[in-house]
Amino acid sequence: MANHSQFGFQDASSPIMEELVQFHDHALMVALAICSLVLYLLALMLTEKLSSSTVDAQEIELVWTILPAMVLIMLALPSLRILYMMDEVNEPDLTLKAIGHQWYWSYEYTDFKDLTFDSYMIPTSDLPLGHFRLLEVDHRVIVPTESKVRVIVTADDVLHSWAVPSLGVKTDAIPGRLNQTSFLASRPGVYYGQCSEICGANHSFMPIVVESTPLANFENWSSLLSS
């Protein structure tokens, strides 16, 4: 989860988020190279070391036409690869339906019978010692570790957005429409998210908590909850 004065993304806990962090670093390096080149040329202009004949040279014009195209290709190829990975949902191990309401989430495990629950934020006055304010819920989403989870996202009233940054997941919840995404939690842990679409007065008070646990623990939890 995020920490105070944190600079950068949260720790990646899924393969997709690892790819996104690597692409972010790649894009920053490209941007740094462009800025360095522009500053270098600007310094040459200010010190008059770049003559007017060089500025009007066709060779230079050819370079500054081809170079931006190469930069765009360097950014587009890995970006398209990640986009295809994020949209690919093949043979999930578990399907979860998340429904946004004002201002809470409800969940349905479609692979199980009668495994549904609502998830409300725990008020600060009822929060146990050591828990996180405005982030804890009364019922967490439990998923098995190293299992591909498909999430079907929709809303009951207004626009919402189901987002868990550590897992690289952010999908709009639109009334009357089903959107889907997927993730694979690469290690056990508790991952926090929030509604990322302004949805009214209590938009900030509908957090998302996903707990990744070993498969045996998940099976015990699901059997207890559905019984």
Automatic annotation (TrEMBL):
<keyword id="KW-0999">Mitochondrion inner membrane</keyword>
<keyword id="KW-0186">Copper</keyword>
<keyword id="KW-0460">Magnesium</keyword>
<dbReference type="GO" id="GO:0042773">
    <property type="term" value="P:ATP synthesis coupled electron transport"/>
</dbReference>
<dbReference type="InterPro" id="IPR034210">
    <property type="entry name" value="CcO_II_C"/>
</dbReference>
<dbReference type="InterPro" id="IPR011759">
    <property type="entry name" value="Cyt_c_oxidase_su2_TM_dom"/>
</dbReference>
<keyword id="KW-1278">Translocase</keyword>
<feature type="transmembrane region" description="Helical">
    <location>
        <begin position="27"/>
        <end position="46"/>
    </location>
</feature>
<dbReference type="GO" id="GO:0005743">
    <property type="term" value="C:mitochondrial inner membrane"/>
</dbReference>
<keyword id="KW-0472">Membrane</keyword>
<dbReference type="InterPro" id="IPR001505">
    <property type="entry name" value="Copper_CuA"/>
</dbReference>
<feature type="domain" description="Cytochrome oxidase subunit II copper A binding">
    <location>
        <begin position="91"/>
        <end position="224"/>
    </location>
</feature>
<dbReference type="InterPro" id="IPR014222">
    <property type="entry name" value="Cyt_c_oxidase_su2"/>
</dbReference>
<dbReference type="GO" id="GO:0016491">
    <property type="term" value="F:oxidoreductase activity"/>
</dbReference>
<dbReference type="GO" id="GO:0005507">
    <property type="term" value="F:copper ion binding"/>
</dbReference>
<feature type="domain" description="Cytochrome oxidase subunit II transmembrane region profile">
    <location>
        <begin position="1"/>
        <end position="90"/>
    </location>
</feature>
<comment type="similarity">
    <text>Belongs to the cytochrome c oxidase subunit 2 family.</text>
</comment>
<dbReference type="Pfam" id="PF02790">
    <property type="entry name" value="COX2_TM"/>
</dbReference>
<dbReference type="InterPro" id="IPR002429">
    <property type="entry name" value="CcO_II-like_C"/>
</dbReference>
<dbReference type="GO" id="GO:0004129">
    <property type="term" value="F:cytochrome-c oxidase activity"/>
</dbReference>
<feature type="transmembrane region" description="Helical">
    <location>
        <begin position="66"/>
        <end position="84"/>
    </location>
</feature>
<keyword id="KW-1133">Transmembrane helix</keyword>
<keyword id="KW-0812">Transmembrane</keyword>
<keyword id="KW-0249">Electron transport</keyword>
<keyword id="KW-0479">Metal-binding</keyword>
<keyword id="KW-0813">Transport</keyword>
<dbReference type="Pfam" id="PF00116">
    <property type="entry name" value="COX2"/>
</dbReference>
<dbReference type="InterPro" id="IPR036257">
    <property type="entry name" value="Cyt_c_oxidase_su2_TM_sf"/>
</dbReference>
<comment type="function">
    <text>Component of the cytochrome c oxidase, the last enzyme in the mitochondrial electron transport chain which drives oxidative phosphorylation. The respiratory chain contains 3 multisubunit complexes succinate dehydrogenase (complex II, CII), ubiquinol-cytochrome c oxidoreductase (cytochrome b-c1 complex, complex III, CIII) and cytochrome c oxidase (complex IV, CIV), that cooperate to transfer electrons derived from NADH and succinate to molecular oxygen, creating an electrochemical gradient over the inner membrane that drives transmembrane transport and the ATP synthase.</text>
</comment>
<protein>
    <recommendedName>
        <fullName>Cytochrome c oxidase subunit 2</fullName>
    </recommendedName>
</protein>
<keyword id="KW-0679">Respiratory chain</keyword>
<keyword id="KW-0496">Mitochondrion</keyword>
<dbReference type="InterPro" id="IPR045187">
    <property type="entry name" value="CcO_II"/>
</dbReference>
<dbReference type="InterPro" id="IPR008972">
    <property type="entry name" value="Cupredoxin"/>
</dbReference>
